[in-house]
Amino acid sequence: MASLREPPNEQAILNIYESMRSELSQIYSNITDLEMQVSEHSLVVNAIQPLDQSRKCFRMIGGVLVERTIKEVLPAVHRNKEGLEEVVRKLYETLEKKKKDMTEFEGKYKIRLRKQDESKEEGGSNKKEGNAQGVLVGAASTSQ
């Protein structure tokens, strides 16, 4: 956790928790985007690898389309693909660490996620939850 101090109240705990959930969501999004790029690089490699190496091909470099040969472009596409795969591996490592931190945070502050079914049934037998210790967090789309 970045902060060494204890959060002052339940709202601060909730804000920290929501921030952690948002960060996890952003990492998932980045992984998805990068995996799509790796897939696109694989398609390009598979399409141009069997072709004549002296054949012309075009490559986008910094918004400029340049003419090269397949022999020149193929190694660069391979390097880019390997670099993207390495970034994805590191993001997965970061994701696992963040998920572990979040689980520890949930345990420390007794955070439970309210299921959508539970929130609809509020009224009868679920009134006992008011006596429980900890922080109850609603669904991600629900604003607190």
TrEMBL record:
Any one GO BP annotation for this protein: protein folding
SUPFAM superfamilies: Prefoldin (SSF46579)
Ranges of compositional bias, category Basic and acidic residues: 114-130
Superkingdom of the organism of origin: Eukaryota
Pfam families: Prefoldin_2 (PF01920)
Region (Disordered): 114-144
Database matches in CDD domains: Prefoldin_2 (cd23163)
UniProt keywords, alphabetically: Chaperone, Coiled coil
GO cellular component: cytoplasm; prefoldin complex
Protein name: Prefoldin subunit 2
Species in which this protein is naturally found: Brassica campestris
